[in-house]
Design brief:
The chain has 176 residues and is of the alpha+beta class. The chain has two helices and nine strands, in the order βββββαββαββ. The radius of gyration is 16 Å and the shape is globular.
Length: 176
């Protein structure tokens, strides 16, 4: 059993006085082998779930994270690399990206929680770019250009360790 790292934000952000309701993104959970999925980080902003992934919000909120420099991966995660998997609804193929869970330098310093938030946002932006001209079978979840969902609409709720070498973010969108 891994410990859940709770990542609160130090104070409320001035630019956002009220959050709109969050709608969970119904991703197909990735499963491979006998690994039991477990959360490795849960994000909260001023008592509300999630950290905004849009660049303006994310950069400000990461700076306010109490434990942004803590390792993102638990000690039980022994792989040097991890596969980040995003499986948006309505698209037939997932977006997967290999990343270093531990640094490539001599000390093999693990990625921090703050770094993982940025990596997930960058990977989600790449997925949005990849999917923007692709048919989506669930129009409610279409990503790309307005009026579709963009990176600014997404919130990272937590990171789940889903298989021996894979992680999957739990996402939601802000809907007005």
């Amino acid at each position: 059993m891994t410990n859940i790292v709770r990542v609160p934000v130090a104070k409320r952000l001035i630019h956002r006085s009220k959050w709109l309701p969050l709608v969970p993104v119904p991703q197909q959970p990735y499963r491979y082998g006998a690994h039991v999925p477990s959360r490795i980080a849960v994000f909260h902003v001023d008592g509300r779930d999630g950290i905004r992934l849009g660049t303006q919000h994310r950069l400000q909120e990461i700076e306010l994270l109490h434990r942004k420099d803590d390792p993102a991966f638990p000690p039980q995660f022994t792989s040097v690399k991890a596969t980040l998997r995003i499986m948006l609804p309505g698209y037939t193929y997932p977006c997967a990206k290999q990343l270093y869970a531990r640094g490539t330098g001599r000390d093999h310093k693990p990625k921090s929680i703050g770094e993982m938030v940025s990596v997930i946002a960058e990977h989600l932006q790449a997925a949005i770019e990849r999917y923007k001209d692709t048919e989506c079978t669930e129009p409610h979840w279409k990503v790309g250009r307005h009026p579709s969902l963009t990176l600014d609409d997404f919130v990272l709720l937590d990171i789940t360790w889903v298989s021996v070498g894979s992680i999957q973010p739990t996402l939601a969108v802000v809907r007005s």
